[in-house]
């Protein structure tokens, strides 16, 4: 096997942290090599070293037989190694062509003017190769996540990349877009391009990868060839131990009584044509399924008062309520753990105490002055209850792992003792190990009588947790599946808008 | 290479792409403007712009003079107080007035040296005179104002008279870029040091100056900020506890000195010599806190400016003073002539607001 | 942690304690350095008279600096402070001349100032305009209105209203030879209230939270709009208090020049004192120290006989040094956090 790109003994230190402690990697032409590991295992740093964003402190890299030490992404790209970022780095106000040529615009002779025709041609060619169905003149802001990804990959193609690094490429793609991306990866492999593929979704790696390198704590935890690649093997190497199979629900729910949350023909501003009816009873875990853009987040935000409903009503404990904002919703006993905890959930620079107490400050104050003792107490209680791993309630949440950050947001709302917990993507960006803890927590909360409505893109998660799965398509409920009938196929059928009459589903 | 073509095409495409709403708005605006102002309604009468170098009660008195003349001679006078008082703002105001069909300008240039080219272009279109502060190198027809050097000397003499044994003196002024500020300061210094009169002398700000028993310890500027003017005096009092006298060269400086001395409990022990006729200054003279003030007779600035410009507009060159400088004599106001001065000031202002 | 230093919400934590206290300590060090240098070169600096002068000016500028800190904490800005000062200062003498008693007149102009803040806040939250734009327009509008109201005339209180003027010029009590200026007491009251508000109250906490992350604050049920409006009301109100005191102090209000650039002095004091323009951080003690540093600089320029022309260069240079020091401290804190993260990870794996 020939090697195109390799790394030997890479070390990268940050103040107080050893991000890479001597990592090896190699990848050959026409190969899809997966890089697997938990958050913080060193995957990103390794990729950044290969793509010129970071420079290793020790160790060596080779590319096409020569030494490889790119000083910047532009440097790496001109050599033929292109990085497609996890969070897409496109200028939304520019067209696809302008993005593809960004920083390498063809000039008109000596003048500092862009040669638009050449740029368009080049971009059109690159977009065609990645199978894009849109032209080079489309503004990026009008493109869907999957299409934007194609623009990024086309950018790499346009740079004649021989190594393409895809960092979590499917995290914001719909399943159709994912399928299209896979086809593209296969095609790139056939074109003798090396693809370095990083993903949390092990099924994707099983499907795509020729080989996989597993990292743990900045070290090589193992290497798996195509034959050795199994889910269990990867997980074992990633966490360094065996995990209990995540199949069954551990704590049995006992949904009982009248619905505590009812949506009656609720229409959100995002989907003015779709009215949603839905009920959640105390002790029930209801999952909201659907493709990206199906309106799950919008529905939760409308319930929580973040969006004004166009029509219809939200009933809490039988009473119709009209929330002018999250404050009203929280006062009525609702809580929302949002999708993007860094953007919508946490004050990253503040400590666990401040973050935990934020939603319930007025309850923990006297005459407008915060009662610090009560505040500390509630923070400590939630840390205890949720098992947040922290050095103390003053630890800055930025320094916590994703799972622990998520627990802090959950703790903030549990401190408000809600009757209804809304969660949007409960385990996004949470490590495999911590994920299971969160599931157990939710089950326990439900068993204590909490009504939980959660949206998830993770099929395993939906099937693992939900008593009922409500499937949305274009803002519309296309079906509700009871736990016994909820299978991956059934959910996908409804989510793609087909099979409204699918067996076992109750259509609305 | 057809660079210009490319440039043009790029430019046009970019503009059309990005500026369609703007173009629409512009064309609408243009239509409105065209409807609103009918061109060619310029009036045949004499229209005079009277431009100050800032905003100050001093200029209110000058404006009253201009207004009085406006009524008397039957001309149109536009009084302009530029703010902030910079050369740039002054220039823009005058340019705007030109568009409105002004045919004569009296101006107190903020920055004589650098505004000279601009003033010269003005003389091609309108009759131009300077007042208050001159631009001697420009083609202005004449200058109306006190001899600032002599006025400065008069201010200095107030201190010499009050402090026969001499002592430390500090000078406070808004800024030193202006001709009048520089000349006044030099006049004060020369009078204190007992030097013979020479308006072309120029002492550096940080030069050590002493003689005739007097030491000039500091010249502090405040950029027309009254609070700064006051704190400058306070700090100078701390630095020079032996300070015997202060001279405030701009209208608000003496009132600031009074306030600072009052705060420091040294009113009466430090002599104040002043310029111009702010109420607080005149009150200070009445109370004996201020030795006296040098009034430039701003009413005359306004009145004479309008009188001369009107004559020039009508082709009468006989009004021009010899040597191009019309010196209005400074009036030294002290306790004994205070009441008469106040009465005249009141009458002047009343005559100007009569219109 | 004293309540006057609400620098960061999470003080006892290593990283943010370094950031929060570091800033206050840094500015305090700067202050000491200026005091020592100036005092060594001119011992009269330590005279009671000079200290009173510096205290007086620090008080006046400290009050508007504290005001400026509030919008900054919400990651906004208020550029209209100088013009609000001018407007308030211009309105007060004519009101008094019209026969309105001193108390009601002062309350009226302060209500006017608070009203302007309310307008700023409403435009920013309800219409979604940018704070920079709203308050920049305020800067222009209020200056123009002030000049129009009194027709560019200088107004003052003359020799009347000496009773009212003691608010700014009075020396109610002495500490040794030092007669404490009345505005210093006003500053003390304002600073203590502001520090309690920002450091201890629910609303202050909300303000810091929304400065950190407005979206997260909103999702957590913080009444983001009302808190933002309040920040601008407090700022304009304190600018109004400053305007009244400035007017009473100098006794000569020239509407075209009164308070010019004071918003920048106020913002500089706030930033020097540890407020981040990124929002979410602010220390009232720091702001007061920041205002003191600015005034001390002007004071020492005169006392050391440095030419007036160099003033801005010196003040600007010191501000820049402050900003550089702040960034260095921030990076130190970040490095510390990274170490902490590493420690947390080791703990997790063991």
Short recap of the structure:
By secondary structure, chain B is of the alpha/beta class.
From the structure above, extract its key features.
heterotrimer; A: 508 residues; alpha/beta; Rossmann fold; 6-stranded mixed β-sheet; 17 helices; 24 strands; globular; disordered C terminus; B: alpha/beta
Q: How does this structure look, described?
A:
The complex is a heterotrimer of chains A (about 500), B (about 350) and C (about 350). Chain A is α/β, with parallel strands linked by helices and about 500 residues long. Chain A is built from 17 helices and 24 strands. A six-stranded mixed sheet of chain A has the order 6-9-10-3-11-12, sandwiched between helices. Chain A has a six-stranded mixed sheet with strand order 18-21-22-15-23-24, with helices on both faces. The longest helix of chain A has 16 residues, at about 175-190. The radius of gyration of chain A is 24 Å and the shape is globular. Chain B folds into two domains: about 45-145 and about 300-330 and about 345-350, Rossmann fold (3-Layer(aba) Sandwich), CATH 3.40.50.2300; about 150-295, Response regulator (Rossmann fold), CATH 3.40.50. Helix content of chain B is about 50%, strand content about 15%. Chain B is built from twelve helices and 13 strands. In chain B, the strands form two sheets. A seven-stranded mixed sheet of chain B has the order 7-8-6-9-10-11-13, sandwiched between helices. In chain B, α3 runs parallel beside α11, α3 (about 55-75) packs across α12 (about 340-350) and α6 (about 150-160) runs parallel beside α7 (about 180-195). Chain B is globular and about 65 Å long. Chain C has one domain (about 15-340): ABC transporter involved in vitamin B12 uptake, BtuC, CATH 1.10.3470. Chain C is built from 13 helices and two strands. Chain C has helices spanning about 15-40, 50-75, 80-95, 100-125, 130-150, 160-170, 180-200, 200-210, 215-220, 225-250, 260-270, 285-305, 310-350, and strands at about 175, 180. In chain C, strands 1-2 form a two-stranded antiparallel sheet. In chain C, α2 (about 50-75) crosses α11 (about 260-270) and α4 (about 100-125) packs antiparallel against α10. Chains in contact: A-B, A-C, B-C. At the A-B interface, loops of A face α1 of B.
């Amino acid at each position: 096997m020939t090697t195109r790109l390799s790394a030997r003994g890479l070390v990268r230190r940050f103040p107080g942290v050893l991000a890479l402690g001597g990592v090896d990697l190699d990848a050959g032409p026409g190969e899809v090599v997966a890089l697997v590991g938990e958050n913080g295992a060193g995957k990103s740093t390794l990729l950044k070293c290969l793509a010129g964003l970071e420079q290793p402190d020790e160790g060596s890299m080779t590319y096409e037989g020569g030494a490889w030490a790119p000083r910047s992404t532009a440097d790496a790209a001109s050599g033929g190694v292109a990085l497609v970022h996890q969070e897409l780095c496109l200028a939304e106000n520019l067209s696809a062509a302008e993005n593809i040529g960004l920083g390498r615009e063809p000039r008109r002779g000596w003048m500092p003017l862009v040669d638009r025709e050449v740029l368009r041609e080049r971009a059109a060619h690159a977009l065609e190769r990645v199978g894009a169905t849109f032209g080079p003149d489309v503004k990026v802001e009008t493109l869907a996540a999957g299409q934007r990804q194609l623009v990024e990959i086309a950018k790499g193609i346009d740079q004649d990349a021989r190594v393409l690094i895809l960092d979590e490429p499917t995290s914001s793609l719909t399943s159709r877009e994912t399928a299209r991306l896979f086809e593209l990866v296969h095609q790139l492999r056939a074109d003798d391009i090396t693809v370095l593929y990083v993903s949390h979704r092990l099924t994707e790696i099983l499907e795509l990868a020729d080989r996989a390198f597993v990292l743990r704590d900045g070290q090589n935890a193992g290497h798996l060839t195509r034959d050795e690649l199994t889910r269990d093997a990867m997980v074992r190497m990633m966490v360094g131990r065996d995990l209990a199979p995540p199949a069954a629900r551990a704590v049995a729910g006992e949904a009982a009584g009248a619905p505590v949350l009812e949506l009656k023909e609720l229409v959100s501003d995002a989907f003015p044509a779709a009215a949603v009816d839905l009920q959640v009873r105390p002790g029930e875990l209801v999952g909201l399924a659907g493709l990206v853009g199906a309106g799950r987040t919008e529905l939760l935000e409308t319930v929580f008062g973040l969006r004004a409903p166009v029509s219809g009503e939200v009933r809490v404990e039988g009473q119709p309520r009209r929330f002018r904002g999250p404050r009203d919703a929280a006062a009525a006993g609702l809580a929302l753990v949002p999708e993007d905890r860094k953007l919508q959930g946490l004050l990253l620079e503040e400590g666990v105490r401040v973050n935990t107490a934020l939603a319930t400050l007025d309850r923990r104050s006297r005459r407008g002055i915060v009662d610090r003792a009560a505040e500390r107490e509630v923070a400590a209680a939630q840390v205890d209850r949720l098992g947040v791993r922290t050095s103390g309630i003053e630890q800055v949440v930025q320094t916590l792992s994703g799972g622990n950050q998520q627990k802090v947001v959950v703790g903030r709302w549990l401190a408000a003792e809600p009757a209804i917990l809304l969660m949007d993507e409960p385990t996004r960006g949470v490590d495999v190990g911590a994920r299971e803890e969160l599931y157990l927590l939710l089950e326990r909360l439900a068993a204590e009588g909490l009504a939980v409505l959660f949206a998830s893109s993770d099929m395993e998660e939906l099937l693992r947790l939900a008593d009922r799965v409500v499937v949305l398509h274009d803002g519309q409920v296309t079906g509700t599946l009871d736990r016994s009938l909820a299978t991956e196929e059934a959910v996908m059928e409804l989510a793609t808008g087909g099979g409204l009459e699918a067996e076992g589903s109750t259509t609305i | 290479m057809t660079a210009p073509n490319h440039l043009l095409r790029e430019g046009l495409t970019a503009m059309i792409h990005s500026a369609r709403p703007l173009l629409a708005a512009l064309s609408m605006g243009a239509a409105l403007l065209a409807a609103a102002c009918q061109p060619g309604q310029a009036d045949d009468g004499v229209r005079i712009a009277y431009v100050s170098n800032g905003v100050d009660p001093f200029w209110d008195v000058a404006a009253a003079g201009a207004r009085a003349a406006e009524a008397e001679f039957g001309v149109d006078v536009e009084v302009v107080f530029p703010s902030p008082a910079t050369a740039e703002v002054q220039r823009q105001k005058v340019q705007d007035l030109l568009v409105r069909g002004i045919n004569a300008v009296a101006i107190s240039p903020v920055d004589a040296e650098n505004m000279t080219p601009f003033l010269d272009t003005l003389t091609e279109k309108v009759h131009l005179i300077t007042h208050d502060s001159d631009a001697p190198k420009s083609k202005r027809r004449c200058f109306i104002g006190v001899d600032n050097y002599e006025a400065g000397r008069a201010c200095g003499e107030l201190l010499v008279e009050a402090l026969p044994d001499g002592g430390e003196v500090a000078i406070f002024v808004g800024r030193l870029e202006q001709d009048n500020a520089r000349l006044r300061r030099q006049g004060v210094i020369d009078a204190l040091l007992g030097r013979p009169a020479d308006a072309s002398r120029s002492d550096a700000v940080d030069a050590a100056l002493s003689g005739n028993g007097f030491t000039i310890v500091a010249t502090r500027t405040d950029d027309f900020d009254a609070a700064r003017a006051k704190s400058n005096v306070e700090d100078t009092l701390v630095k020079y506890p032996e300070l015997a006298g202060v001279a405030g060269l701009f209208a608000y400086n003496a009132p600031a000195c009074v306030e600072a001395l009052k705060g420091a409990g040294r009113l009466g022990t430090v002599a104040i010599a002043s310029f111009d006729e702010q109420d607080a200054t005149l009150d200070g003279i009445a109370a004996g806190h201020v030795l006296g003030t040098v009034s430039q007779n701003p009413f005359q600035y306004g009145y004479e400016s309008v009188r001369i410009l009107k004559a020039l507009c009508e082709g009468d060159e006989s009004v021009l003073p010899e040597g191009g400088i019309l010196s209005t004599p400074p009036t030294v106001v002290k306790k004994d002539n205070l009441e008469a001065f106040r009465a005249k000031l009141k009458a002047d202002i009343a005559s100007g607001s009569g219109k | 942690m004293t309540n006057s230093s609400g620098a960061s919400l999470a003080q006892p934590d290593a990283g943010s304690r370094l950031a929060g206290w570091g800033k206050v300590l840094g500015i305090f060090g700067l202050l000491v350095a200026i005091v020592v240098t100036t005092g060594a070169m001119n011992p009269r600096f330590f005279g009671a008279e000079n200290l009173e002068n510096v205290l007086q000016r620090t008080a006046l500028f400290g009050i508007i600096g504290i005001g400026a800190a509030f919008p900054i904490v919400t990651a906004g800005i208020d550029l209209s402070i100088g013009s609000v000062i001018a407007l308030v200062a211009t309105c007060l003498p004519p009101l008094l001349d019209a026969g309105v008693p001193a108390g009601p007149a002062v309350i009226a102009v302060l209500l006017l100032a608070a009203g302007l803040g309310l307008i700023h806040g409403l435009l920013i939250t309800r219409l979604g305009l940018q704070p920079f734009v709203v308050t920049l327009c305020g800067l222009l509008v209020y200056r123009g209105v002030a000049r129009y109201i009194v027709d560019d005339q200088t107004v003052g209180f003359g020799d009347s209203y000496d009773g009212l003027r003691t608010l700014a010029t009075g020396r109610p009590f002495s500490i040794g030879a030092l007669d404490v200026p009345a505005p210093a007491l006003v500053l003390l009251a304002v600073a203590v209230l502001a520090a309690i508000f920002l450091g201890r109250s629910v609303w202050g906490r909300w303000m810091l939270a929304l400065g950190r992350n407005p979206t997260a604050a909103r999702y957590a049920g913080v009444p983001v709009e009302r808190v933002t409006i309040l920040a601008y009301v407090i700022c304009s109100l304190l600018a109004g208090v400053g305007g009244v005191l400035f007017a009473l102090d100098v006794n000569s209000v020239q509407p075209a020049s009164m308070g010019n650039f004071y918003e920048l002095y106020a913002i500089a004091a706030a930033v020097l004192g540890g407020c981040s323009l990124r929002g979410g951080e602010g220390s009232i003690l720091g702001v007061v120290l920041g205002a003191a540093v600015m005034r001390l600089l002007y004071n020492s320029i005169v006392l050391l006989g440095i030419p007036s022309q160099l003033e801005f260069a010196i003040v600007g240079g010191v501000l820049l040094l402050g900003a550089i020091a702040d960034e260095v401290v921030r990076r130190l804190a970040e490095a510390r956090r990274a170490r902490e993260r590493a420690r947390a990870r080791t703990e997790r794996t063991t």
